[in-house]
């Protein structure tokens, strides 16, 4: 995990280094131009006159001390800015993962019982839709449908500032109401992947030798399905869910932009418009960290299911 | 004795994309109380389908019973619903399968899987069921059953898993046990133990057994009565003695002729081709004499595999696959290496042509040490020593026509002219007795035996002096096996080839070899002329191995004798492990026995 | 022994058989036809439909069908049909080019990792793992933000971040196939490493790689649309995603401005996915009856 972070940081530095123009240019641009003397001063300030490896080393140390620089646009430390926005993204990403995974497994198991039936057809259609429909487009369509034409969900944001209450549940309900559409939008893609994979994996397991053994033991269809087959078909689905974490985070960026959800995604969108490079790089580091944590969690779940996976890799 | 189960006029159809195929035709047989019925036939004869149909375990979409009935305990069971059948399955009729590696659920402990069937059919508490499970594991001779019950299947060996399967099958004291090739995937010593176990439990519980196998030797060991199936039909039925001593049907006769019987070569000094019945095989069978001129000699060969792990894939331990082995092969003769899985015999073959790099040793081919050569020179040396592999389905590249596959070695050694290639490959096809029209075909259009002929043609392309044949006939049906073996022996005479024949099958080895080396855990424990090894084995492992081999003769049964072979120790050692060199005692001319401790 | 006279059955060459399976599947064929139609629309369409997608040709928010503009006009009064026709070229070109880049990197890395094993595999797979953890969209955003948004930089950015799945599949296929006897046999008969990798193993590993690459084309198209939606597209060319992004603040006034380009993306990617499924059925030996 630490290596992954280190590599992201080095990658960040390399991209900064290779990109046309340097930080001084960017800052000068946001300030609306600077003269030659100011530029030299800026360059010394950022250590840009130092040799390559010294710069790299300094950059890594700086980031390791959680100093991600300053946002020119918001005029505050990037780290504080990210901490402010991180919870919203975490909420969106993890709720979407949990919802799509649990619904996907249910749907997949149900469809596998009848491989040529309607439910299987539905899972196949759903997976085609999930793959083909761009998530931001699905988001806009849902927004049009359920916020504009049938206004049951709020259009944007995470909370309704007009609510005045001390009750935690009132606020929680408010956030949930705001969360629903973005979460469903994001979950829809992965629901499609997971249900299809779960169905396929279930069908494969149902053809396995040990399922035949279970049948020969006289177990009922229900026991075979829910005990023997389900547990075995979970591993590939959960492994895939772990691999999908980075895709979920990528999707969240688009979904947040559509719904103005105040997380890292909207922040990234705004910093692109504002050419606020340090913020963008900070977000890259933190979202990578988020994916790594997600992977560790899926590893733990996998390990609890399958006794054959042991030790760390 | 009263009839327990009878199958009457059973017809089963397979529904495939291309149409309906009749896989079982009008089959009738019965099983009586307490007897063992052997059902024997080659692959595709419908024996497994028949077994599965009894308990309605056939895959519903593809295989259907089109007519016939199955009577169990005077009740027709072929029309019962799944619900009603569930009370019979695992309770009154139970089944064990071929693949112990995949027949148990990998995610539940073996104890749970045994207790589950007890709880399903007997109304007992969880604790009672668990205790019964441990009792059963003890019954099938799993040592330390309390502890082993908590293990997952992947922690057990193949033999132990098959014991667990037997425990599951016998948990509810069924009236019939259907055993579908239960020992085919197992080593010969473990097979002997499992067969003895089934025999003992059958005698103790009075369970009738339906024993399905392709192996005539196993049938001879197990069955009271036998039915012989040949594509979907019963061609012969009789007591085991009738079938083996006085077969009536042509198919049964040819099948028995194709099975090499351990001990039948005892009086012959040189190997000779088998006489096959039916194809007008009137050739004079001539012994293959060979020469006493060494062609390949191996000295102190050691090969180890590294087990890597941790950060940066450091070497953590080593598998001692081949440990200090020496032998010599004579021009025109066959040396066989025999042993059970994991003994290192295949690694020896691969080390000789450096498909795996040996750790040390010398391999002299025509006076040149192959292990000293640079990578580039190894390529040249490989043209003199070629290999034939076991699995006919994996040994040919599915993407290329056969012409290209046989041409590949020639092209690799600089022969590109099409006329020359065509001429040489045509000759090779003639040699292995395949029609030249096959050159344009792809491997999937060939049968297993034909593929193995192609593999032999490819090995012959460069006119090698030595051919390493790694289990070349193990995946083939016996009748095809006999033909391929005969072909190899003919080629040996015609071309003066030398073979290193690697096999687990003692009966086949006895048929083809001049000399035999027995391997155990990476060591050569005994080596000598074939007759000496088979008639007068010295090493305890060789003795046990020979004792374990089933003989295709019902009058030579390993009756009642519980085998008690030692379990195989692990060949994995940490980096500090320094094994002792192999030392041998000479017991007769050319006959040596290992005196170093090899773990047996 | 009469029963041993092994059956003679002549079958077609495997590749021809596969084409047959593919063409017999209606959905795959439909997908292929749609894909060809969209490509023709993008590359040849502008010759016949000459309205410039950047020209403000009419009043803003003119609804579809009205005033002679089949799909209406956007918030600046530009013709949406022209934007969709011209956007097809960019989507298809970037989709295929980026997928080719990914495929090239992924196959190279996966093949060498799988074939050689040891520390080469260790290093290559660590790199692959890293690209699997990296949120690809964000990384591509950073690349495009720093290096400028041209068609080339976008293609390279998408290609450079999407190869991990191909590398994983290639490696696992190589690991499986290199142990098979026919590879050992080929090695024993004197084939060189490069011969083994590219002429012996790769053709046998091709099926899942081709299917995955087909899916990558679709993924690259949605990826490009996502970047464009966020405003990171080449300003000199029209892109479907960019049309949606630019119009999204006006959805209350004109829903169709986001609906039509979205349908264009949806239909194109759907077609690719149908082709991918068809390829999977045709190439997967498990599904083919022996």
Descriptive report:
The complex is a heterotrimer of chains A (313), B (600) and C (290). Chain A has 313 residues and is mainly α. Chain A has two domains: 2-64, no CATH class; 85-312, MetI-like fold (Orthogonal Bundle). Chain A has helices at residues 2-18, 23-31, 36-45, 52-64, 78-112, 118-132, 135-149, 168-206, 209-216, 221-259, 264-273, 277-305. In chain A, helix 5 runs antiparallel to helix 10 (221-259), helix 5 packs parallel to helix 12 (277-305) and helix 9 (209-216) crosses helix 10. With 600 residues, chain B is α/β, with parallel strands linked by helices. Helices cover 32% and strands 26% of the residues of chain B. Chain B has 19 helices and 23 strands. In chain B, strand 9 and strand 10 form a beta hairpin. In chain B, helix 13 runs parallel beside helix 15 (448-460). The longest helix of chain B has 18 residues, at 188-205. By secondary structure, chain C is mainly alpha-helical. Chain C has a single domain (23-288), classed as MetI-like (MetI-like fold, Orthogonal Bundle). Helix content of chain C is 71%, strand content 0%. The relative contact order of chain C is 0.16. Residues 1-13 and 286-290 of chain C have low confidence and may be disordered. Chains in contact: A-B, A-C, B-C. Chains A and C meet through helix 1, helix 6, helix 7, helix 10 and helix 11 of A and helix 5, helix 6, helix 10, helix 11 and helix 12 of C.
How would a textbook summarize the main sheet of chain A? none
Outline the low-pLDDT stretches of chain A: none
Average of the residue pLDDT scores of chain A: 84
Shape of chain A: globular
CATH architecture of the largest domain in chain A: Orthogonal Bundle
Number of domains of chain A: 2
Largest sheet of chain B: 8 strands, mixed
Number of helices of chain A: 12
């Amino acid at each position: 995990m630490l290596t992954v972070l280190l590599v992201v940081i080095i990658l960040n530095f390399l991209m900064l280094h290779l990109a046309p123009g340097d930080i001084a240019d960017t800052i000068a641009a946001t300030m609306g131009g600077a003269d030659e003397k100011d530029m030299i001063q800026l360059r010394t300030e950022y250590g840009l006159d130092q040799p390559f490896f010294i710069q790299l080393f300094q950059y890594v140390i700086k980031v390791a001390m959680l100093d991600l620089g300053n946002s020119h646009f918001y005029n505050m430390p990037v780290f504080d800015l990210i901490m402010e926005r991180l919870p919203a993204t975490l909420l969106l990403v993890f709720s979407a993962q949990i919802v799509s995974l649990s619904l996907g497994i249910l749907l997949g198991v149900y469809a596998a019982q009848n491989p040529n039936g309607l439910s299987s057809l539905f899972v196949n259609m759903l997976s085609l839709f999930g793959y083909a429909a761009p998530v931001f487009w699905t988001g806009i369509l849902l927004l049009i449908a359920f916020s504009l034409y049938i206004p049951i969900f709020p259009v944007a944001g995470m909370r309704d500032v007009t609510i005045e209450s001390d009750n935690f549940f009132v606020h929680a309900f408010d956030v949930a109401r705001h969360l629903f559409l973005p979460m469903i939008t994001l979950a829809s893609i992965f629901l499609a992947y997971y249900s299809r994979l779960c169905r396929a994996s279930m069908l494969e397991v149902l053809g396995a030798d040990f399922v035949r053994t279970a049948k020969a033991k006289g177990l009922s269809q229900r026991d075979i399905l829910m005990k023997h087959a389900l547990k075995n078909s979970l591993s590939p689905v959960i492994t895939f869910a772990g691999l999908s974490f980075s895709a979920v985070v990528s999707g969240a960026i688009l979904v947040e932009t559509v719904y103005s959800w105040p997380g890292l995604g909207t922040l990234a969108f705004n910093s692109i418009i504002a050419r606020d490079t340090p913020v963008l790089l900070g977000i890259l580091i933190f979202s990578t960290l988020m994916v790594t944590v997600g992977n560790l969690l899926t590893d733990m779940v996998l390990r609890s299911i399958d006794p054959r996976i042991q030790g760390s890799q | 004795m009263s009839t327990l189960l009878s199958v009457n006029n059973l017809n089963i159809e397979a529904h495939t994309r291309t149409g309906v195929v009749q896989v079982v035709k009008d089959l009738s047989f019965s099983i009586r109380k307490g007897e063992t019925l052997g059902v024997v036939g080659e692959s595709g004869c419908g024996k497994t389908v028949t077994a599965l149909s009894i308990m309605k375990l056939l895959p519903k979409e593809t295989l259907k019973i089109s007519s016939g009935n199955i009577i169990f305990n005077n009740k027709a069971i072929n029309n019962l619903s799944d619900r009603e059948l569930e009370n019979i399955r695992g309770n009154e009729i139970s089944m064990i399968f071929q693949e112990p590696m995949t027949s148990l659920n990998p995610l539940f402990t073996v104890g749970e899987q045994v207790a589950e069937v007890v709880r399903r059919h007997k109304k007992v508490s969880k604790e009672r069921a668990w205790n019964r499970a441990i009792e059963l594991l003890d019954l099938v001779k799993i040592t330390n059953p309390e502890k082993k019950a908590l293990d997952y299947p992947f922690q057990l060996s193949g033999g132990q898993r098959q014991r667990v399967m037997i425990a599951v099958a016998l948990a509810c004291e069924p009236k019939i046990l259907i055993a579908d090739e239960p020992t085919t995937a197992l080593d010969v010593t473990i097979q002997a133990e499992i067969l003895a176990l089934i025999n003992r439990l059958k005698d103790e519980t009075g369970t009738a057994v339906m024993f399905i196998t392709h192996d005539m030797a196993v049938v001879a060991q197990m069955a009271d009565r036998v039915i012989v199936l040949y594509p979907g039909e019963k061609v012969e039925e009789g007591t085991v003695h009738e079938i083996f001593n006085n077969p009536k049907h042509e198919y049964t006769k040819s099948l028995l002729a194709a099975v090499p019987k351990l001990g039948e070569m005892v009086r012959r000094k040189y190997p000779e081709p088998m006489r096959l019945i039916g194809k007008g095989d009137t050739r004079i069978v001539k012994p293959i004499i060979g020469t006493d001129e060494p062609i390949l000699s191996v000295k102190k060969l050691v090969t180890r595999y590294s087990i890597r792990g941790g950060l940066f894939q450091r070497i953590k331990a080593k598998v001692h696959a081949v440990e200090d082995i020496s032998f010599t092969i004579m021009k025109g003769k066959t040396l066989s290496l025999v042993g059970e899985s994991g003994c290192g015999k295949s690694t020896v073959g691969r080390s000789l042509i450096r498909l795996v790099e040996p750790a040390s040793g010398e391999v002299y081919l025509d006076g040149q040490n192959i292990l000293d050569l640079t990578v580039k020179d190894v390529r040249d040396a490989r043209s003199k020593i070629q290999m034939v592999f076991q699995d006919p389905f994996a040994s040919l590249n599915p993407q290329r026509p056969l012409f290209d596959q046989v041409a590949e070695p020639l092209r690799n050694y600089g022969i590109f002219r099409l006329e020359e290639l065509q001429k040489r490959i045509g000759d090779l096809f003639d040699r292995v007795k395949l029609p030249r029209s096959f050159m344009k075909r792809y491997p999937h259009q060939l049968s297993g035996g034909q593929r193995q002929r192609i593999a032999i043609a490819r090995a012959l392309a460069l006119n090698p002096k030595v051919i390493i044949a790694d289990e070349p006939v193990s995946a083939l049906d016996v009748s095809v096996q006999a033909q391929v073996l005969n072909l190899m022996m003919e080629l040996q005479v015609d071309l003066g080839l030398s073979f290193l024949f690697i096999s687990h099958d003692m009966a086949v080895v006895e048929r083809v070899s001049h000399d035999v080396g027995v391997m155990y855990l990476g060591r050569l424990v005994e080596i000598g002329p074939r007759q000496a090894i088979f008639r007068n084995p010295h090493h305890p492992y060789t003795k046990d191995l020979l004792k374990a081999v089933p003989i295709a003769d019902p009058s030579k049964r390993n009756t009642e004798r519980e085998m008690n072979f030692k379990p195989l120790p692990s060949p994995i050692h940490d980096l500090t492990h320094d094994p002792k060199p192999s030392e041998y005692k000479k017991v007769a001319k050319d006959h040596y026995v290992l005196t170093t401790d090899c773990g047996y | 022994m009469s029963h041993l006279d092994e059956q003679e059955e002549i079958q077609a060459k495997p590749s021809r058989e596969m084409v047959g399976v593919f063409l017999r599947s209606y959905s795959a064929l439909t997908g292929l036809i749609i894909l060809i139609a969209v490509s023709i629309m993008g590359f040849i369409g502008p010759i016949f439909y000459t309205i410039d997608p950047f020209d403000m040709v009419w009043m803003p928010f003119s609804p579809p069908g009205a005033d002679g503009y089949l799909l209406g006009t956007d918030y600046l009064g530009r013709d949406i049909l022209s934007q969709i026709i011209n956007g097809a070229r960019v989507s298809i070109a970037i989709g295929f080019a980026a997928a080719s880049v990914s495929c090239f990197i992924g196959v190279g890395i996966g093949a060498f990792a799988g074939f050689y094993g040891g520390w080469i595999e260790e290093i290559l797979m660590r790199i692959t793992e890293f690209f699997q953890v990296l949120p690809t969209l964000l990384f591509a955003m950073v690349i495009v933000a720093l290096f400028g948004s041209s068609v080339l930089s976008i293609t390279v950015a998408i290609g450079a971040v999407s190869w991990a799945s191909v590398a994983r599949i290639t490696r696992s296929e190589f690991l499986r196939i290199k142990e098979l006897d026919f590879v050992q046999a080929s090695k024993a008969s004197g084939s060189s490493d490069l011969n083994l990798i590219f002429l012996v193993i790769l053709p046998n590993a091709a099926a899942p790689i081709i299917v995955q690459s087909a899916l990558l084309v679709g993924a690259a198209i949605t990826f490009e649309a996502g970047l464009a939606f966020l405003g990171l597209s080449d300003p000199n060319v029209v892109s479907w995603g960019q049309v949606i992004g630019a119009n999204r603040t006006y959805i209350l006034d004109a829903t169709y401005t986001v609906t039509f380009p979205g349908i264009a993306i949806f239909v194109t990617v759907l077609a690719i996915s149908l082709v991918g499924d068809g390829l999977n059925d045709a190439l997967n030996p498990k599904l083919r009856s022996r």
